[in-house]
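User: Can you help me understand a structure? I only have the sequence.
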Amino acid sequence: MERTLAIIKPDAVSKKNAGKIIDMIEENGFNIVRMQKLTMAEDHGKAFYAVHKERPFFGELVEFISSGPVVVMALEKDGAIKAWRDLMGATNPAEAADGTIRKLYAESIGKNAVHGSDAPETAAQEIRFFFHDL
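Assistant: Let's start by predicting it. Here is the structure, written out as tokens:
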């Protein structure tokens, strides 16, 4: 079993799409190991996205992720990282495949509804960031 971190971002939560996204997660065979709804403080957002601190979009990213409630989940499934990234769809919703979360619920590259870990090392680090005991 592999684990990955999933975040339903403020845009999707504010539009009342979190439940629909959670349904998609479960319908696609993921086990939700842990789930929490929270609002990230700006310093928490900066720490989470520290890998992007030198990028020009860092400030916007932090401002967005801390702009409202998010739903954070540790997901488990064989091949969870790839499966979650496939279910999320391309970062740009205009390029996302039909039936993916971003095609259905994202409004732009910046407001793209969900986050997912991109590698096993990242997944482990991101899961520990929110769920210290996992």
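Now, to help you interpret it: The first strand starts at residue 2 and ends at 8. Helices lie at 10-14, 18-27, 42-48, 58-65, 80-88, 101-105, 120-130. Let me know which part you'd like to focus on.
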